[in-house]
Design goal:
alpha+beta, Immunoglobulin-like, six-stranded antiparallel beta sheet, four-stranded antiparallel beta sheet, 2 helices, 41% strand
Amino acid sequence: MEMVKTALLLVTAAWSASGADFSLAIGNPVAVARPNGVVKKDIGFAVRGENCADVAKIQVTGTAEGMVDGARRSIPLRLVAGETAGTFAVSHDWPQQGVWVVNLTGHCGSSIASAVVPMGPNGFLRESSKFFPRAATAAEVESALKTLTGGGK
């Protein structure tokens, strides 16, 4: 019986040590402690890196990709580190008109994760967001944008 307990403990420890892959999670603006210099109304939403051995080293970049009056637009975004390591405020730097998706890419050491987050009139659309264990492709970003404009799935 002792041998079974030891084996079970070793399997559990090995499974826990392997951990999940690095990923990004999104949340309401209140999910990130407001960083210095960023007012709440300027924050579109929060993003957090998960399953990173050193959360202090997580880096996230992003662009807003949109269609405004039939013209394609791309705007680099400001991501401001939150007071909690590994959290970021995504600044709402894109115009109100048009349809938009936010393309985020995170790095934890050599691991990469991304999220394509559609934006609606009242904020981000969690249920339509796509998360990847790699950088999102241009085709995946275009597909999300096309879905928002009513042009496809």
